[in-house]
Each structure stands twice: as C-alpha cells, then as structure tokens.
Specification:
By secondary structure, the protein is α+β, with helices and mostly antiparallel strands. Helices cover 29% and strands 23% of the residues.
C-alpha cells in the first residue's frame, strides 16, 4: 500500500499545470523556437506533449526541429494534432495543428533556390488553411542569427544585412502573390523590431503601416520580463499580420507565454529541458454578426437567401453563415436564421 501511494504521489508531482489559451470561436496560434528539438531527449518530448495539450492552440509554427523521429513520436502523444515538416537539416521548420479545427489546403516552401540561401538559411514555410470558413496564410520563418547590432549595407555577408534582405523579400512575396489575403508571418526573426530605423532590419515593413503590423510591438517596446528570449535578454520572436486582419486584431490577445513561470524550477528547468525561447501567442477573434452573411450589419431575409446559395454551391462560404457554429453550413443554419429574422 505504501508503494502504491508513493507512485501515485510521484505521478501527480510530475504533472504541470499550464494556461489554457484556446477557444472554439477564435484562431489561436503561436510561434515557438523549441531549440534543437528535443533538447533533453525523451524528457523534452514529455514536457512539450503536456504543454501543447493544455495550451489548446489551433496552430503552432515550430523552429529548430532537429530529430524528426522524436517529433513524430511526440505527435503520437497528441491525438488531437498532426504535424508537418519538409526537412530536419540545419534546425528545420515545422507546423503542429489541430486536425478538427484546421483544414489545410497546401503547405510549401518559398525562396528555395541558391540565390536566396544567404537571406534564408531556412526557406520560409507557407501553410494555406481554412478555419471556420475563412482562409488564412501562415508563413513560418527562422532568420539568420547573430551580428553586432549594426546594419552594414555594403557587406552582403553582414548578419543584419541578411535579415534585412529576408524581411524585404518576404514583403515582396506577399505584395506580389498574396495581396488581399489574410497573411500571418511568424517565427524566430532573430532581431529587434523596436530598434532605431538606422539599424532596423524590418524598416521597409515598418514604413508600410497601412498594410503591415507587428502585433507584438507592445511586447518589444515594453518590459524585458515579457520578452521571448530571456537569456540575452531580447525579444526575437515575432508575429506580423497584413491589413486584411487589422479589424480582427483590435479584439485580439497577444502575449509571450511565460511557460517557465509554471514550473517549480522556473527558468532553469525550462531552459534545461524545453527551450531557450518562449512561445509568442496570438488569439484572432472574428469581428462579425453571426447570421449577417452579406456583411451589411443587419440580419434579414437577404442573409437567408445568400445562405441558401452557399449551401447549393452558388456562393463562397463565409463564417457568419454557420449560424450554430458547428463547422458545417446546412439547412439547420437556415432554420435558425429564419427564426431570428421572423422574431426580429
């Protein structure tokens, strides 16, 4: 009996409680450099399975995947999730996403040929998804590290210059190929978005505030206690959105997930077993009136007509047509929508 009690005590003691940040009605995602995964072999896998289960996010953009076999093993311990990677060389990129929430249309890499290897040691990984009737484009990145903090425009090998080139090329790709799309650029970008314009590798993006916004700028300009890379300390992991998402951003939550504060051993335990980076998280909340299918801020018979057209395939799906929010637009939504219209 004493042995059984001891084993039970140890099992409970090993389990940690982390925050639950996901919800059914928002797109919840994070960027996370998990530092040469798995940093401490099976122990790291156990920690991360526990963390992902409890965070309850829809999408996680991963950097520094080193061992794909153990990554697959980790996914086996996450029945609600699956993952994707293309290569494991040189700290590869990956995605982890919730299968019952995300419909993946395509995943591919960009800037893969040798002329771009200096700017992108790891080719950006694009994931095209549908979530609750809306399309989103994620671009996962891990920029070149290091440097002296000074941008040397006359030296193409300068680390800051390489990150500047990467930043400009990403903007160019989005401007030319993804205009009018809901684009989310995220990852370990290895530089400060809040430094002076003279040495800011993101200045071209920052100079276009009508089309681009770093949602974690308040973190970057705020207390170092909230930064993603405490060891330096610095804030290197970022989330950038395009103007199509600005309205949703107004009601969104952005934070560095300080997982180390949920561990009894604090930062030392986290750094030894998980990573030297904290995840940066965003919750995108849809700003719409459920049932207002045509977006005129009124729910009426016109919305019923358009919903019928969506069901028979004559109109594209929109999230506001899924009136009961069960992930399917069908006759049940029409019945509930008609009831609302009749009862005003």
């Amino acid at each position: 009996m004493k042995i059984i009690i001891l084993i039970s005590f140890l099992a409970v003691g090993f389990s940690q409680e982390y925050p639950s940040l996901g919800s059914d009605n928002s797109l919840d995602f994070a960027t996370w450099n998990i530092e040469w995964f798995p940093k401490n072999n099976q122990t790291t896998v156990n920690y991360i399975v526990d963390i992902i289960e409890q965070l309850d996010l829809d999408v996680i953009a991963i950097q520094e995947l080193n061992d794909t076999s153990m990554f697959d093993q980790m996914l086996d311990g996450l029945p609600d999730y699956t993952g994707y990677y293309e290569s494991s060389w040189f700290a590869g990129l990956a995605y982890i996403y919730k299968t019952n929430a995300i419909d993946v249309n395509d995943i591919y890499e960009i800037y893969t040929t040798s002329p771009y290897w200096s700017a992108f040691p790891r080719s950006p990984m694009v994931m095209d998804i549908d979530f609750m009737g809306q399309n989103y484009i994620f671009i996962n990145n891990h920029f070149k590290c290091c440097g002296d903090g000074n941008l040397d425009s006359n030296n193409e090998s300068d680390e800051e210059m390489r990150r500047l080139s990467a930043s400009n090329l990403l903007k160019q790709y989005i401007d030319n190929n993804l205009s009018n799309k809901n684009v989310i650029v995220l990852g370990d970008l290895n530089d400060d978005i809040a430094e002076s314009s003279l040495n800011n590798v993101f200045q071209t993006i920052l100079d276009d505030p009508e089309n681009y916004r770093f949602v974690d700028m308040d973190i970057a300009t705020g207390s170092s206690s909230n930064w993603s890379f405490p060891t330096w300390p610095s804030h290197l992991d970022h989330i950038l959105i395009t103007n199509e998402l600005f309205d949703q951003f107004s009601n969104s939550d952005v934070q560095t997930i300080k997982l180390d504060q949920y561990l009894s051993g604090g930062w030392n335990e986290y750094d030894a077993n998980i990573s030297d980076h904290r995840p940066v998280f965003m919750k995108l909340v849809n700003n719409f009136i459920m049932g207002d299918v045509n977006g005129d801020d009124v729910v009426n018979i016109l919305d019923v007509v358009i919903t019928v057209q969506i069901i028979i395939g004559n109109e594209d799906s929109v999230i506001s047509a899924d009136f009961n929010q069960d992930g399917v637009i069908n006759v049940i939504d029409i019945v509930q929508l008609v009831s609302i219209v009749i009862n005003n």
